[in-house]
């Protein structure tokens, strides 16, 4: 973690749970610019300014949530829709008086998170389309026949007199040698095109991954 992010990090035990979320790919940090705290953006839709993230008891056990006093635009109270739904249903089932402003805020959070999930699905679809186009272009490239190499090498060997026959003249040797070179060059050119296909897939992967840590198994 870079110093600029570390200075915004909440203390223990919140810090350790945040690091777990980052390392598992369940969340990633988004820079907001100079003198503004990074956002902890969850794959499940939630978004909380890093300094305001807290590990707190919820209706689903200890979870990362926004500090209670942190109701601000562009931030959700819970990290996913289920957390918001559980809070609403919990209050309903307890039969306690509900704060209309709190309920409206939770509904806004849910709408925002669902919209974010929808946008993320569009990003994955764009990734798949980019990969599909790259793979289609790759398969459209007809590879040279590397199996021709033994035959061409045998002809060159014969022209050089390696097969017991008298060696050929310069023109014959040159022609046979150039056949081998041409096959190798065609294969090199084909592999360069295949490498570009692989690079295109890699670029699409990097774009959809963004700043997320996918070194370990990450959520969808």
Outline the structure in words.
The protein is mainly α and 220 residues long. It folds into 2 domains: 117 residues, no CATH class; 69 residues. Helix content is 55%, strand content 10%. It has 6 helices and 5 strands; from the N terminus they run ααβββββαααα. The strands form 2 sheets. A 3-stranded antiparallel beta sheet has the order 1-2-3. The radius of gyration is 30 Å and the shape is rod-shaped. The protein starts with a helix and ends in an 11-residue tail after the last helix. The mean pLDDT is 90.
Concise structural overview:
The chain has 220 residues and is mainly α. The chain has six helices and five strands.
Instruction: Supply the number of helical segments.
Output: 6
Order of helices and strands: HHEEEEEHHHH
Tally the beta strands: 5
Task: Catalogue the unreliable spans.
Answer: none
Radius of gyration: 30 Å
Outline the biggest β-sheet.
3 strands, antiparallel
Q: Give the mean pLDDT.
A: 90
Beta strand %: 5-15%
Number of structurally distinct domains: 2
Indicate the multimeric state.
single chain
Mass-distribution shape: rod-shaped
What strand order characterises the main sheet? Answer: 1-2-3
Estimated helix fraction: 55-70%
**What structural category arises from helix and sheet content?**
mainly alpha
Distance N to C terminus: 23 Å
How is the topology of this model organized?
Elements: H1 3-6, H2 14-24, E1 27-30, E2 39-42, E3 47-49, E4 53-58, E5 61-66, H3 81-94, H4 100-140, H5 149-159, H6 170-209
Antiparallel strand pairs: 1-2, 2-3, 4-5
Helix pairs in contact: 3-4, 4-6, 5-6
């Amino acid at each position: 973690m870079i110093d600029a992010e570390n200075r915004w990090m909440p203390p223990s035990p919140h810090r350790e749970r945040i690091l777990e979320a980052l390392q598992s790919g369940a969340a990633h940090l988004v820079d907001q610019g100079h003198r503004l705290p990074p956002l902890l953006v969850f794959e499940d839709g939630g978004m909380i300014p890093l300094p305001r993230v807290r590990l707190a008891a919820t209706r689903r056990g200890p979870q990362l949530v926004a500090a209670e006093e942190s109701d601000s635009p562009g931030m959700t109270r819970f990290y996913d829709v289920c957390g918001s739904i559980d809070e609403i249903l919990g209050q309903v089932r307890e039969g306690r008086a509900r704060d209309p402003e709190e309920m409206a805020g939770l509904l806004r959070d849910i709408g925002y998170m669902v919209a974010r999930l929808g946008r993320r699905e569009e990003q994955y679809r764009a990734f798949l389309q980019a990969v599909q186009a790259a793979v289609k272009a790759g398969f459209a490239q007809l590879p040279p026949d590397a199996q021709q190499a033994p035959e061409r090498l045998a002809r060159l060997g014969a022209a050089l007199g390696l097969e017991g026959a008298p060696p050929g003249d310069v023109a014959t040797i040159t022609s046979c040698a150039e056949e081998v070179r041409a096959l190798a060059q065609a294969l090199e050119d084909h592999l360069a095109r295949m490498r570009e296909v692989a690079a295109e897939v890699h670029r699409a992967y990097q774009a959809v991954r963004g700043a997320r840590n996918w070194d370990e198994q990450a959520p969808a």
